[in-house]
Amino acid sequence: MAELDHLIFASPDVDAGVRHIENLTGARAVAGGPHVGLGTHNALLTFDDRTYFEVIGIDPDQSDPDRPRPFGLDERDGPGLAGYAVHPTGGESLEDLRSSMLAAGFDPGNIADMSRRRPDGELISWRLTIGGDSGVASQGALPFAIDWGDRPSPAASLPSMGRLVSLRVGHPDASVRASVEALGLVNEVVEGPAGLTATVDSPNGTVEIS
Question: What DSSP assignment string belongs to the chain?
């Protein structure tokens, strides 16, 4: 059974996104590293040793990529939750999880290899589904899948932002809501404007991030 891997908070300026989250939660994200070729970099916090929170934005030290930056960063005029990822558990493979997503009624895209270099110089790598109906194509409602292989999740070595209480997914399209519900990985799926809302028990108390 798959489980939530991380939430994606998109902010064209990562530093501004980090400040926004710190003001809201009292927790300050640490630098993660650049995604070479995508034109992005990130900063990270964790909920537990399996689930983390990513602030992603435009990397000013990279040239413009050949394709649009992920999570609508090229068009965004402010920060906000823009997506979420799930990972396989037990004996399930990334390919198995992709098949489960197809069975739930949407295409998460193809499987690709990715990597980034942490500030300490260590190269970390992973596989994920990219493209298809996930992410910006569904306005964040449908997840993508990620697999860290035999390496620990980044969640295990990050400063905490508190406990993730719930994740709510909203979308006006009944078929999209049905796909999200079929996966059984979020707490609430509602009809309405497309968007994500995370409720977090943070150092500043219970807050909502959307």
Answer: --EEEEEEEE-SSHHHHHHHHHHHHS---EEEEEETTTTEEEEEEESSSS-EEEEEEE-TTSPPPSSPPGGGTTT-SS-EEEEEEEE--TT--HHHHHHHHHHTT----EEEEEEEE-TTS-EEEEEEEESTTSGGGGTT-S-EEEE-TTSPPGGGGS-B--EEEEEEEEES-HHHHHHHHHHT-SSEEEESSSEEEEEEEETTEEEEE-
